[in-house]
Design goal:
By secondary structure, the protein is an alpha/beta fold. The protein has two domains: about 130 residues, no CATH class; about 150 residues, no CATH class. The strands form two sheets. Strands 1, 3, 5, 6, 8, 9, 11, 12, 14 and 15 form a ten-stranded parallel β-sheet that branches. It is elongated and about 80 Å long. The N terminus is likely disordered.
Length: about 300
């Protein structure tokens, strides 16, 4: 299965799981539903459950499930009774000799194994989960683009409002020390994740590694927005001295480029690396005793310098 097909299959699997969750709500009063993200679910002999939905883990039904049983990633073993449908997306379903499925048995990658004596009330069918989401890939991509666009714009507004000096210092670092800025950005982009992974492999360092990875998310967003602001300043240097105009211009350019397949991702990566380096250089110069203040650029022709 190719990567795009695998992605579509995963989306379809999650869609079926979410659908099962919605359908499970009315039956909650009659029996207990089992909804598990990871770890598996077991319905022992003599016990009754409603719907059973497992995203990642093994499913064992020795008792009775009055609703549907859905396994996205993991094997399913049925030795009891399933009143609804049995759906195995990416692993195999095993039906013992006493297994009873009242509805359909639907599978994806691996065909089920039915022992002599097992019965399925509906049909046994192979489903192409990838085809189920054909035509929806662009919707998810657009949704992701919109989410990133809105979040980065919000962060950009906060930066321009609360930390304009930091943006100016980062822009100065790019203007005066471009090579060092890129070098530091590459070093941070490679070194920090590597340090976090090394910390995670040690028992003592797990909290530090997790904290480092979580902290990296907002830092990467800030770095991306910083580069967007710097791009806007470069584009508008002879037209406008407004920080807000620079933010909207640079942000708009990067978000439009993000719509281009492959190239948009590379542009985002470069922007983040440059932003990391620029922020690192700005912090380094700011901590030096007697560091000079960021020098504003000369105002654009026809625009008077702002009052002190």
């Amino acid at each position: 299965m190719s990567t795009p097909q695998a992605v579509r299959a995963a989306i379809a699997a999650l869609s079926f799981a979410l659908l099962a969750l919605v359908l499970a709500a009315p039956s909650a009063s009659a029996a207990t539903d089992h909804v598990v993200i990871t770890g598996g679910a077991v319905v022992p002999a003599g016990q009754t459950a409603g719907d059973v939905v497992v995203i990642d883990g093994t499913v064992r039904i020795a008792g009775r499930a009055t609703g549907d049983v859905v396994s996205v990633s993991g094997p399913v073993r049925v030795d009891g009774r399933v009143d609804g449908d049995l759906i195995a997306v990416s692993d195999r379903a095993f039906l013992g000799p006493n297994a009873r499925v009242g509805g359909d048995l639907r599978y994806g990658d691996q065909p089920p194994v039915l022992s002599p004596g097992a019965s399925v009330g509906g049909k046994v069918s192979k489903e192409d989960w990838a085809d189920a989401t054909n035509g929806w890939g662009w919707v998810s991509a657009l949704g992701w683009w919109l989410a990133v666009s809105v979040s980065t714009l919000i962060v950009g507004v906060l930066l321009v409002w609360l930390a304009p000096g930091a943006l100016s210092a980062a822009e100065r670092a790019v203007r005066e020390h471009l090579g060092a800025t890129i070098g530091w950005g590459v070093l941070i982009a490679i070194g920090v994740p590597l340090l976090a992974v090394l910390a995670l492999v040690t028992l003592v360092g797990i909290p530090f590694g997790v904290a480092l990875l979580l902290a990296a998310i907002p830092v990467l967003v800030v770095a991306y927005v910083t580069t967007a602001w710097i791009v806007g300043r470069r584009v508008l240097r002879n037209r406008s001295a407004s920080r807000w105009a620079a933010l909207l211009t640079g942000w708009g350019i990067l978000r439009v480029l993000a719509l281009i397949p492959v190239a948009g991702g590379l542009v985002g990566l470069v922007a983040t690396v440059v932003g990391l380096g620029a922020l690192a250089m700005a912090l380094w110069h700011a901590r030096r005793p007697g560091a000079p203040a960021a020098r504003p650029e000369a105002p654009a022709p026809g625009h008077p310098a702002p009052a002190a």
